[in-house]
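User: Hi! I'm working on a homework problem where we have to compare a predicted structure to a textbook description. Could you give me the structure for the chain below?
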Amino acid sequence: MKGQKNILSSTNQAFEALQNDLLPRSFGGLGKLWVGVLLLISATGLFFYIRQLQDGLVVTAMRDYTTWGIYISNFVFFVAISLVGSLISAILKLSNVKWRTPLTRISEMIAVAAIVFAAIIIVIDMGRPDRFLNVIFYARIQSPITWDVIVISTYLLISVMLLYLTMLPDLALMRDKWVGIPKWQHKLYDILSLNWQDTTEQKRILAKSVKILAIVIIPVAFGIHTVTSWLFATTLRPGWDSTNFGPYFVSGAFMVGSGAVIAAMYVFRIHYGLGKYFTDKHFDKMGKLLVLLSLVYLYFNINEYFVPAYKMKGFESEHIMELFTGAYAPMFWSIQILGMMVPIVVLMFKKGRKPFPMFLVSLLVIVGAWFKRFLIVVPTLAHPFIPIDQIPESWKHYSPTIAEWCITAGTLAGALLIVTFLVRLFPVVPIVETAEDYGYLDEDGSHSQQDKIIEGHDNT
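Assistant: Happy to help. Predicted structure tokens:
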């Protein structure tokens, strides 16, 4: 009997230790510095955007030919990053992959932050943002822009719901168990928990709702990047006139999204001391997944460039040569080698799938993905079908201005700020779901089966 009580006590202690590990933490000195730097970058971007509102898009390097610059490159990058929510929370969940549990919350946070700023960067790119509502009031179903507005809004709504609903048990836990926090923070958890009481009926409704969202978000996720690719592919331009763009964009999005999750895993493993939850096993599994996604993306890359390079016709030939041997060749080959080939080779080996090498590889993937989107947008616009004649020399080339770089950096910092504040207020690893996986709780929120047996013996 005494031994049984000791087991029960150790189980409860383990659950308490898990809660202490995973509850949100106040910013330390390094955290405050991180927030301060991000706020400074965001404020600088806001300052230059106000200047852009006052003076117009003339403060950028975009002109009649290069009408899209790093703003649209950044938009495509954010849309790509946002797909990680559907990959980790939906596809792996529906596949019943158990090791994904610690990764779900952070992937959903990244997805929400990215899709919010994908929407914001589109408004920034508009010369007259005050006319944005015209896109809604006078929408034309024939326009891919209309489809893009619809699918981005839908994906944002589902991503927020998926993040919020899965947090309900943790919000209730923090409402009831977490003491010593400011009143406003406790009130926040009380409101957001929606009177969650861990009843069987609530659990059933939540499980059904999350499953529906997980199923619905997958076609929407594929749709958001497919529609984004159609914005390019339906335009008769060399480099964009491709039927390969849909799967090409989707595969690249899953690749960079996985890289973002790996980078976040490493940061929280080191700076939050979550090595027990982001284990070597998780890095190994994510490394194998990243290799698979990289190989799929490599296949579509070969398709994207091999066919036009084989035919070398007209303006397509000029575009290809500009990438392969021209002004954009150093960037192009750096992306192919460092952002794709090196990650594949490194992650093929078990030692390459250790946390620190994985972190370095993920940074290569993320940086390479951003510049890849730049190469998709800018070189094509520099090769229009209409001959460039009798215009200033500067119009023939595109080099982003300080204003563009600062505004773009501000949006990237803003997305990181959203993730940072979400992590400050909510558990980065699901507490209740992790406890269920470890056997500390049953899926109905009660004591584990082991505890029930012990209690039954005690009653006897």
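For your comparison, note the following. The mean pLDDT is 85. The chain has one domain: 61-400. Good luck with the assignment!
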